[in-house]
């Protein structure tokens, strides 16, 4: 946990400096707080590093599911076209799969909670009427808590292989997308995010596509 906070400290300091610069030099009408709700579909691949054979058989593999996130950000535009966005992302994912080793015998369910700090480059490359159309790209660092549950189906052969575990893992994010802003207030967004998380328990890679609606103040 101490290592986690040490990795977040420079990001927080850098973000605070950018917000200070934004308040001092940012274009007032385009600089401000943003709040958004995202929903999407996610693809998850997990390689567990378990302590026993039971978990080794049933915990690895791919899963898919639905993803939701709340985004609290701050946009800073230094010109009408170019800017930066700092954001704190809090997400939840529900994933499921038939286990890839004991196919159709065990059902894997995952509940994944994730939070991350991110920095994106923002560009509004087209303006028409009340609309600005732009794009963004960047990354950051985050932490995940993954609750994994394997349960037998009616034709399960090895009931003593059933188990649950909680995986704590940290790592980097990459993201990019398009954003549509109306009257500098309402924002619509489509994006793709890649998250890589690792720990002594597991290596997790996660790819998700999102659509979102948000507001700027």
- Could you spell the SSE succession in H and E letters? HEHEEEEEEE
The number of distinct helices, counting runs of at least 4 residues, comes to 2
* Backbone CA Rg: 20 Å
What strand line-up does the widest sheet have?
Answer: 1-2-3-4-5-6-7-8
Shape: elongated
Tell me the distance between the termini: 34 Å
Taken as a percent bin, the fraction of beta residues is over 45%
Percent helix range: 10-25%
Number of strands: 8
**Major sheet description:** 8 strands, antiparallel, barrel
Unreliable parts: 52-58
Mean pLDDT across residues: 81
**Structural class by SSE content:** mainly beta
What report would you give on this structure?
The protein has 217 residues and is mostly beta strands. Helix content is 14%, strand content 66%. The chain has an eight-stranded antiparallel β-barrel with strand order 1-2-3-4-5-6-7-8. β3 and β4 form a beta hairpin. The longest helix is centred in the first third of the chain and has 24 residues. The radius of gyration is 20 Å and the shape is elongated.
What's this entry about, in short?
With 217 residues, the protein is mainly β.
């Amino acid at each position: 946990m101490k290592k986690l906070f040490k990795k977040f400290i420079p990001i927080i300091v850098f973000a605070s400096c950018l917000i200070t610069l934004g308040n001092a030099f940012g274009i007032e009408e385009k600089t401000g707080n943003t709040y958004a709700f995202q929903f999407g579909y996610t693809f998850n691949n997990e390689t567990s590093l378990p302590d026993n054979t039971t978990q080794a058989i049933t915990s690895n593999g791919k899963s898919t599911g639905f993803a939701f996130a709340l985004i609290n950000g701050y946009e800073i535009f230094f010109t009408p076209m170019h800017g930066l966005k700092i954001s704190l992302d809090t997400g939840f994912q529900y994933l499921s799969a038939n286990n890839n080793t004991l196919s159709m015998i065990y059902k894997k369910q995952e509940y994944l909670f994730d939070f991350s700090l991110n920095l994106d480059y923002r560009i509004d490359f087209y303006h028409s009427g009340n609309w600005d159309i732009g794009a963004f790209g960047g990354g950051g660092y985050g932490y995940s808590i993954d609750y994994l549950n394997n349960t037998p189906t009616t034709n399960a052969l090895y009931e003593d292989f059933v188990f649950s575990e909680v995986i704590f893992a940290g790592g980097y994010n990459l993201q990019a997308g398009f954003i549509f802003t109306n009257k500098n207030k309402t924002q619509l967004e489509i994006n793709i995010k890649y998250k890589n998380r690792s720990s002594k328990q597991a290596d997790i890679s996660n790819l998700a596509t999102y659509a979102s609606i948000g507001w700027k103040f």
